[in-house]
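Reviewers asked in the last cycle whether our approach scales beyond single polypeptides. To address this, we selected a multi-component target totalling 150 residues and predicted its structure end to end. The input consisted of the following lines:
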Amino acid sequence: MIIDRSALNSVKSGIESLGFEHFGTSVRSFMESLENDGRYVLFCSMNDGVLTGYLIISVVCDEAEVIQIAVGRDLLRKGVATGLIKECFEYLQKRSVISLFLEVRVSNVTAISFYEKTGFVVTGMRKNYYSDPVEDAIIMSMRLCCHCSG
Ligand SMILES: CC(C)(COP(=O)(O)OP(=O)(O)OC[C@H]1O[C@@H](n2cnc3c(N)ncnc32)[C@H](O)[C@@H]1OP(=O)(O)O)[C@@H](O)C(=O)NCCC(=O)NCCS
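The resulting structure, written as C-alpha cells, was:
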C-alpha cells in the first residue's frame, strides 16, 4: 500500500471512525492486511486533519480495480468521492493504466448512481458474488484513455 507511513495510524483510526465494514471485518483490520502489499493504493480526503473519505484500489499491470470507496455520513453529496476518484484517475493515467473496473452490490443504488455519474458503465454481472447477505454483483468499468478525451 502506498501511503506516507507517518500518516498511516491517523488514517486508520479515521477510517475506523467512519464506521464502514469490508467483507465482514473492520476496515482497520482489512487495511492492516493490505499494508505490505504493493498492489494496493489508498487515496484519502482530509479536512482540518480529519479523514472525510477514502478510496482503495488495486493495480495489476495495466488494469486497476476499485476495492472500496466511502465518505463520512455527515459529508455525503458534497463531492468528496468525486474528488477522490479524480485523484485516482490522474494517478492511474500517470502509470499508463488503461482500464478500471469494480464490483458493486445490485442493491447499492447510491454507489451505482455515483459510479455512473463518474463515467463507469455496466459491463457484466456476477451471480451470488457477495455473502452475508448473498447478492449478485454488477461489474462496472471504464477505459481511462476514453475518460481522458471525454
Ligand atoms: C457512494 C459514495 C462513496 C458517494 O460519495 P459522495 O461523496 O456522497 O458522492 P459525491 O458527492 O461525489 O456525488 C457525485 C454524484 O454521485 C451521485 N450520487 C451520490 N450520492 C447519491 C445518492 N444518494 N443518490 C443518487 N445519486 C447519488 C450523484 O450523481 C452525485 O452528483 P450530484 O450530487 O451532483 O447529483 C457514498 O455514498 C458512500 O460512502 N456510500 C457508502 C459506502 C459505499 O457504498 N461504497 C461503495 C461500495 S464499495
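Strands lie at 21-22, 25-26, 40-47, 50-60, 63-71, 99-105, 121-130, 135-143. We regard this as preliminary and will revisit it once experimental data from Aim 1 are available.
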